[in-house]
Amino acid sequence: MKISAAEVIVTAPGRNYVTLKLTTDEGVVGYGDATLNGRELAVEAYLREHVLPLLAGRDAARIGDTWQYLYRGAYWRRGPVTMTAISAVDQALWDIKGKVAGLPVYELLGGRAREAVTVYGHASGADVDDLLADVARHLELGYTAVRVQAKIPGMDSTYGLHTGPNIYEPASGALPKEEVWNTAAYLDFIPTLMGRVREEFGYGFHLLHDVHHRLTPIEAARLGAALEPYRMFWIEDATPAEDQSAFRLIRSHTVTPLAVGEVFNSIWDCRELITERLIDYVRTSVTHAGGISHVRRIMDLADLYGVRSGSHGPGDISPVGLAANLHLDLAIPNFGIQEYMGHRDPAAEVFDWGYRYENGMLWPSDRPGLGVEFDEEAARRFPYDPKYLPVARLADGAMHDW
Ligand code: CS2
Ligand code: MG
After folding, report:
1. Tens digits of per-residue pLDDT, 355-393?
2. Is 212 a catalytic residue?
3. Taking the model in full, what pTM does it have?
4. Which residues form the Mandelate racemase/muconate lactonizing enzyme C-terminal domain (predicted)?
5. Domains and CATH numbers, the chain
C-alpha cells in the first residue's frame, strides 16, 4: 500500500494545532501531530517544502525505513522543527498501520502492559489559598498526582498559572509577553508552598513541581534539598535542559527525584542523563522527538538504567499527539506518569478522541490506529492565530531563560 497524498492542516480551535494527513492509494487515512508552540508555521513549511514531496509513492508499511530516510537522509538533522516534522510522519504511518490491521496502535507495540495510564493534573493559584482550593478540586476529580504552581509573591506574573478557568496557555499576543523573574523570591517561596500543601492534604498523593529551566545547578540543588521533607514525585526542568552535566551537580546534593526533557528532540539530548543515571524521569514527547518510533528507543534506553517515562502532555500537543503518546505509555515497561491538561472547547469540534479521563487515569479506546478522527471542514472554521511564548528578563533587564 503506497502513500498517495499528503497534506498539512493548520487550525486554531482554541489554540493552534498543526496536523499532518497522509492518505494511501487504498484510501486509508493517517494523522500525525506536528504542533510546535509559537513555531507552528516553521514545521508546516518544513513538512510542505522538504518532506511531503519525498513521501508520494513510498510503501506506507515501512515506518522504520521512512523514519531513517527522513532523519539519516537529511544532512542537516535533528532540532525541534525537523524532529516534530518527522514525528508527524511517524505517527501518521503508525495510525495507518493500525487501521490496516484493525488494531489500536498499542497492540502493535506489544499490547498493554497496564490497563490505563496514570496522569498528573495542573493545580495553580494566584496566591496560596487559591492554589490550595485548586489542589482540593483536583483531588476531588480523582487525581492521584498533582503538579503545583503558584504566583510568586512580588512578581507580576509567573509561568505555569492557569490563564482562564482551568486553562493553561502560555502563548499569547502578536509579540512575546515580557515577564520579570526573581530567583531569590522563588527559592524562598516554593518550599513554604509545598509545606502548606502537605500540611493541608497530607502525603497520600504525588506532588510535582515545574521549575521551567529557571535555576543554576547550585540553586537547583538547594531547592531539591529544601523540598526533601515534602517527598516530591519530581521537580521538573530545574536547569536549562541543554546542559546535561548540570544534573551531576544537582544529583550530588539531593535525593529529590529529577525530571527533564520536554524540549528534547532526540536520544542524543538525553544519552548521558540516562546512562549516568542523572535523572529519574525523561519527559520527551512523541510529538517533539521523532514520533512513536524514536521515543520508544529513548524509553528502551532509559529502562536499562532505571529511568522512567513522564511525557510532556500540555494543551499545545494536539489530541492526536497525546493519543500517540498514550499508546506508547500503555506498552512500555518503564512507564512513570503522563502529563495531562486536556483539550477544551472548541477543540472537540475538530478532533474526536476516543481516550477518556477517569479516576486519575487516561483510558484508551479500542478504535484502530491512534483512534483520533479529524474534521477538516470544522478545522477550516478556525484559521491560524499567530502567538508567541513569553520571554523572561531579570530586574536589571537582562534576558533570562523562560
Ligand atoms: C510546561 C509546558 O507542561 C509543562 O510542563 O512546561 O506547558 C510548556 O510551558 C509549554 O508546553 C510550552 O509550549
Ligand atoms: Mg514543563
Report:
1. 999 999 999 999 999 999 999 999 999 999 999 999 999
2. yes
3. 0.98
4. 128-257
5. 3-104 (3.30.390.10), 108-367 (3.20.20.120)
